[in-house]
Amino acid sequence: PTVGILNIGSEELKGNDAVRGAANLLRSTKLPIRFHGFIEGNDITEGTVDVVVTDGFSGNIALKTAEGTAKLYSSFLREAFQSSLLAKLGYLLARPALTKVKLRTDPRRYNGAMFLGLNGIAVKSHGGTDALGFANAVGVAIDLVTHGFNDRIKEEFARLKAGEEPSAQAVAG
Predict the structure, then answer these.
(1) SS3 164
(2) CA 61 → CA 14, 50, 64, 66, 145, distances in Å?
(3) What is the pTM of this model?
(4) For residues 45 and 101, what is the distance between their CA atoms, to the nearest angstrom?
């Protein structure tokens, strides 16, 4: 996968010491990744990289900004479709497509982010979610346990420390 670090600019001199240090580590890693370098907020939705690395503070800001923007556009669409009889008719025609977009962008369906660096499974759920979101977060935790995620991470770190190449399973994901 391609990996990028969220930063205030794509130039190598930008960012704080921790961000630049993380970039140096990823540039020299033996992990089976392609390190892209620094990315900016717009790169997240453009798909510039497969994996965005960020600290919790910046990542939370980026996530909540994206969520807020989605809610803003949803309210704009709702107002526009209620603005006239013709707009209401347009909504009836567009409703199946809008329902697909709503399902695809529903954060409850993707709820549950894993914390790494722990000796157990810990999944963070969005505090504002409902039963569906919590159920999906529990599903993420179940998948991590079922597939031996922590043991695989420990094995791969041991390989890296020993200077070995990553296993085929790690490369395949």
Answers:
(1) coil
(2) 19, 19, 5, 9, 29
(3) 0.71
(4) 15
Taking a C-beta distance cutoff of 8 angstroms, is the pair 74, 84 a contact? no
Q: What is the rounded CA–CA span in Å between residue 43 and residue 66?
A: 12
Element (H, E) at 24: helix 17-27
Longest CA–CA separation in the chain, Å: 69
The 3-state DSSP class for residue 117 equals: coil
Block residue for tokens 């013709």: 86
Phi, psi of 5 (to 5 degrees): -105, 125
Region at 2 (left for phi over 0; alpha for psi -120 to 50; beta for the rest):
beta
- In tens digits, the chain (173 residues) has pLDDT values of 999 999 998 888 898 999 999 999 999 887 888 999 999 999 999 999 999 999 889 988 998 898 899 899 999 999 999 999 999 999 999 999 999 999 988 888 888 888 877 788 889 888 888 999 999 999 999 999 999 998 988 888 888 778 776 665 655 55
∠ at Cα 107 (97, 147), nearest 5°? 115
